Amino acid sequence: MLFRTGPTMDDDARLLQQLMEESLSFEYQQGGVTVVDDPHTTKWRTLPCLISAQVTYLVKYEIADRGRQNDVQPGEVLLVPPGIRHNLTKISPGPGTSRWSHVNFRVFTSVDILTLIELPLRIQDPGRAVAIGEINARLVPIARNDASATTTAIESLSRAVTRKALGLDLLRLILDVSTPRPRAFEVLRAAQRLSPALVAIDRDLAMPPRSVDALSSLVDLSRSRMQTLFQDAFGMSPMRYLRHRRLERSRQLLLTSDLAVGSVAAQTGFTDQFHFSRAFKSEFGASPLTFRQRVQKAIS
Predict the structure, then answer these.
(1) Confidence class of residue 281 from pLDDT cuts 50, 70 and 90?
(2) What is the pLDDT of residues 125-183, one digit of tens each?
(3) In sequence order, which residues have a C-beta less than 8 Å from that of residue 297 and are 6 or more positions away?
(4) Could you give the CA distance from residue 158 to residue 180 in angstroms, rounded to a whole number?
(5) Which residue has the higher pLDDT, 15 or 44?
(6) Would you say 76 and 125 are in contact if contact means Cβ atoms under 8 Å apart?
(7) Which of 184, 202, 185 has the alpha carbon at shortest distance from 110?
(8) Could you tell me how far CA 85 lies from the centroid of its own chain?
């Protein structure tokens, strides 16, 4: 398990539990219960979300930067962490079914909790695998009903509660077989101290950027101390972090909306579409339009 509860729980575990209870958010991007025919491959792709999929067929699971390959057996769950370049290829002959979801879990609106833990690439335990598959399947109709214009406010609230409960149960099943990465708790402590600035940055991505001095006043720190904490937590300066968050948000909008590239740029604080496309390509290796087309083709 990632952490223990009770009288033996240490300070790191207590911090993590506190953050989970106070600031954890669940973002459901998309999912499905999909019948997969032969031949099928996702081709090489990188997504800004966790992929969890319970499959009824044999899958060759390749990870580019780790030089690793795993065979995921029928009935097991494969997990692809956010930001990992991977390729999934169906090996078993005949049709099979995948119950899958693309999700994110964050604290302080922007810190991806999954980047702080070592995930197993596959879950073999039959009971846990089935439970994850069932959660993925239950999330699908909730997302579809969200798009309905005929539901009442109470029905919408009920779906939101159910969706979050399912998401948190999914995270629990994953955390129980995961371990913290080195420095995970240092990052969380720094992020906790910076949380007012992180929330403000994420809330105002479309607005002109705040100055470093303005951000430091939000967290009641000197300019130099705040910059040190940003470097410790994220490996970058506050302004570089702002640019990174704008590009991450733009990537999410390209994946989950039908907004034109110019509208995505405007909603993430880029006043010039050419500058946005150049920055996006520098960060993710493809132009916004090319990135959207590649991912849509890989998912379809």
Answers:
(1) very high
(2) 999 999 999 999 999 998 877 656 567 888 888 999 999 999 999 999 999 999 988 88
(3) 43
(4) 33
(5) 44
(6) no
(7) 202
(8) 14
Q: Percent helix, strand and coil across the chain, each rounded to 5?
A: 50, 20, 30
Burial 42-63 (b: 16+ CB within 10 A, else e): beebbbbbbbbbbbbbbbebbb
Phi, psi of 176 (to 5 degrees): -65, -20
For residues 191 and 193, give the distance between their C-alpha atoms in angstroms, rounded to a whole number: 5
CB atoms within 10 A of CB 201: 22
State residue 54 phi and psi, 5-degree precision.
-95, 125
In 155-269, DSSP assigns E strands to: 179-180
Does the bond joining 288 to the residue before it have cis omega, within 30 degrees of 0? no
**279: number of Cβ within 10 Å:** 18
pTM: 0.83
Q: Which domains does the chain have, with CATH numbers?
A: 11-180 (2.60.120.10), 194-299 (1.10.10.60)
Which residues make Cβ contacts (< 8 Å) with residue 38, sequence separation at least 6? 90, 93, 94, 95
Percent of all residues in the chain with a pLDDT value above 90, rounded to a whole number: 57
Contacts of residue 267, Cβ cutoff 8 Å, sequence gap at least 6 = 205, 206, 249, 250, 253, 259
pLDDT mean over 50-76: 90
What letter does residue 45 receive in the DSSP assignment?
A: B
pLDDT above 80 for 205:
yes
| 3-state class (DSSP) for residue 8 | coil
Rounded to whole angstroms, the Cα distance separating 185 from 223 reads 23
Helical pair 223-234 and 238-256, crossing angle rounded to 10 deg:
50
Q: 196 Cβ partners below 8 Å, 6+ apart?
A: 218, 219
